[in-house]
Design goal:
The chain has 486 residues and is an alpha/beta fold. The chain has 16 helices and 16 strands. The structure holds adenosine monophosphate and zinc ion.
Length: 486
């Protein structure tokens, strides 16, 4: 290679010299496997995104912080990560299987508007929630299902031409008996899956696990398109197969989702994609366990959900939720309570304080350490976040490490956790108009007490203000108030 070619190679080659070993639990094998990407130094990651008919709840957000932690761990190890997360803006059906009402129609009726404006509103709120949780949304492609109708039709057409589909009055169906190993994800046999499948009233359906690729339009359907099978709309599963293929290619490295998606949605995605391409669709299937509320899955249909906006309204920094998620391993169910969130919030505050001290002591110069190596090894061992957090606390408090070694550990932790550890946020000072009337009155009384040198009274008022949920600090321009997390 001449010198010019060598320089050129150096500036364009994204392959890291040597990527460290990373282990992930693959739902396909049910075991922890070493991660080997299709293309050296590059990881293709697809995550099933939300149906944008209402706000996402914090259970959903657990799934997205999980995929962000995968992406961060891969990036920190030197991979270039290409991320896609679909936005379902076509109404697939309420309920676990293909039955029930169209979600986008439910949203449109609830807000007396169109599916398009519902989709726009809730997509914006969703991406805003991710941003509040410090997910780099500029780094993710968010394809809308309605922008990929052509690709979904083309994929269904291929499946029909290859003999995997049959047409009924209700639409075009995938014949699961034609696909060998149907149900391989989660190790379920065809017989198991059939026994568990919902009995649906679809005349002519050949097998209980068969699923719709293209649904024939009902007269009242708000969203419908032309297709080789008449007017209609795409089935629940085809959008992920089609958009993953269009944006990342026929074979990808990792596909994520909550564990509820594995059995039906992801087995159906595998059937569609692999029947069409004769190739392995996804090398590593990764699923997060549920966020629960009082022992039950947090779910909109059970009505036991909390939104990120509730958390922010109560005065918590949204990153407290991120810290709360990281306290549990992604494959373990996690029970939400406000007390547990408050615990996470105060731990994060303490970590931020500690980080400011270490920034001063180290002058923000970092050095490698055994603690940082241990942290990296834990994150690369199937994202062992609880143990990795434990290592951070233990090492930052220890006398064994120099400030520069501690700073090096904080930098690594920040890259993986996205908790703003090396740049802690400063609490937002509240202006007068943010404060309730009662607090404004107390502040005025405190100023009067101080002016008349009645410091005892001023202190009493300060205690009352703090008891009402505010931090108060006296600055040169007067008292500065911030909200104390509940
Ligand atoms: P959905 O909009 O219901 O398809 O959910 C979007 C994502 O959130 C999927 O990956 C689900 O598996 C996941 N999910 C839904 N509820 C929960 C929960 N309570 N805990 C964790 N993940 C969830
Ligand atoms: Zn999906």
């Amino acid at each position: 290679m001449n010198w010019l070619a060598r320089i050129f190679k150096k500036s364009t080659d994204t392959t890291p010299a040597r990527v460290p070993q990373i282990f992930f639990t693959n739902t396909l094998s049910g075991t922890k496997e070493v991660f080997v990407s299709l293309k050296p130094g590059m990881a293709l990651l697809y995550s099933c995104g939300p149906t944008v008919y209402s706000k996402v709840h914090i259970g959903n957000l657990r799934a997205y912080i999980f995929s962000d932690t995968i992406a961060r761990t891969l990036s920190a190890a030197g991979y270039r990560v290409r991320r896609v997360m679909n936005i379902t803006d076509v109404g697939h059906l309420v309920g676990d299987a293909d039955g029930g009402e169209d979600k986008m129609a439910v949203g449109a009726a609830r807000e007396h508007t169109t599916p398009e404006s519902i989709a726009e509103r809730y997509t914006k709120l969703f991406i805003g929630d991710l941003g509040d949780l410090n997910v780099d949304t500029d780094d993710i492609t968010f394809p809308r299902a309605t922008d990929y109708i052509k690709e979904q039709i083309a994929l269904a057409k291929t499946l029909e031409e290859k003999g995997f589909a049959y047409q009924l009055a209700d639409g075009l169906y995938f014949d699961t008996h034609k696909f060998p190993n149907y149900g391989k994800l989660g190790g379920l046999s065809q017989a198991n899956l059939e026994a568990g499948a919902r009995v649906e009233l679809v005349r002519g359906k050949r097998n209980p696990t068969d699923f719709v690729l293209w649904r024939a339009a009902k007269p009242h359907d708000l969203q419908q398109w032309d297709s080789p099978w008449g007017r209609g709309n795409p089935g629940w599963h085809i959008e992920c197969s089609a958009m993953s293929r269009a944006l990342l290619g026929q074979e990808i490295d990792i596909h994520t989702g909550g564990e509820d998606l594995a059995q039906i949605h992801h087995n159906n995605e595998i059937a569609q994609s692999e029947a069409a391409s004769n190739r392995t669709f996804v090398r590593y299937w990764m699923h997060n366990a549920f966020l629960t509320m009082n022992g039950e899955k947090a779910s909109k249909s059970l009505g036991n959900v909390v939104y990120l906006s509730d958390i922010i309204e109560k005065g918590f920094n949204p990153l407290s939720l991120r810290y709360f998620f990281l306290q549990a391993h992604y494959r373990t169910p996690l029970s939400f309570s406000w007390d547990a969130l408050a615990g996470a919030a105060s731990a994060l505050e303490r970590l931020w304080k500690l980080s400011e001290e270490i920034a001063d002591e180290s002058g923000r110069a970092s050095a490698p350490s055994e603690a940082r190596d241990r942290f990296l090894a834990l994150m690369r061992d199937d994202l062992s976040t609880p143990q990795a957090l434990g290592t951070i606390w233990e090492s930052l408090k220890s006398e064994e490490y120099t400030p520069a070694e501690k700073w090096g550990l904080l930098e690594a932790a920040d890259a993986h956790f996205g908790l703003l550890l090396v740049n802690p946020p400063t609490p937002k000072a509240l202006t007068e108009k943010d404060l309730p009337e009662a607090i404004r009155k107390m502040l005025a009384e405190r100023i009067a007490a101080r002016t008349s040198r009645n410091f005892k009274e001023a202190d009493r008022i300060r205690t009352d203000i703090e008891a009402a949920g505010y931090c108060i600090e006296d600055g040169p321009g007067g008292a500065i108030l911030t909200k104390t997390p509940l």
